[in-house]
Amino acid sequence: MYDKEIEEVGYTPYQMRMVSSLRPVASDTIDYSYKSTNREELNDLFARRGKADDILIVKDGYLTDTCLTAQDRFKQVLTYFKIPYEE
């Protein structure tokens, strides 16, 4: 976690998932700027995927993200800061 100073550094092993189907899920209020510490909104949207493998987040009529992309960005942050993780 971070604020003016780093409070905590942690990581979770990354597991690559096969994605062959996506479901659009709308949320005009979602804010996941702190998704590495609070994934509640993402998890709530992901739970609405039905039989799809992942979701496409639609905000204000625009496709903005996928739950999988949010995870991939987290992996990029770990790589940038040279924090080890398992594939």
Task: Please compute the radius of gyration using only Cα atoms.
Answer: 14 Å
The total of beta strands comes to 3
Q: Which oligomeric form is depicted?
A: single chain
Average pLDDT: 76
Task: Give the helix proportion (percent range).
Answer: 10-25%
| Strands ordered across the widest β-sheet | 1-2-3
How large a portion of the residues is in β-strands, by DSSP E? Answer: 15-25%
List the uncertain runs.
none
**Element string (H = helix, E = strand):** EHEEH
The end-to-end span amounts to 23 Å
- What form results from the Cα inertia axes? globular
Question: Major sheet: size, sense and barrel closure?
Answer: 3 strands, mixed
Structural class: alpha+beta
Number of helices: 2
Describe the structure.
The chain is of the alpha+beta class and 87 residues long. The protein has two helices and three strands. The protein has helices at residues 40-46, 67-80; strands spanning 22-26, 54-59, 62-66. It has a three-stranded mixed β-sheet with strand order 1-2-3. Strand 2 (54-59) and strand 3 form a beta hairpin. It starts with 21 loop residues before the first strand and ends in a 7-residue tail after the last helix.
Would you kindly provide a brief summary of this structure?
This protein has 87 residues and is α+β, with helices and mostly antiparallel strands.
Observed structural traits:
about 90 residues, alpha+beta, three-stranded mixed beta sheet, 2 helices, about 20% strand
Topology of helices and strands:
Layout: E1 22-26, H1 40-46, E2 54-59, E3 62-66, H2 67-80
Parallel strand pairs: 1-2
Antiparallel strand pairs: 2-3
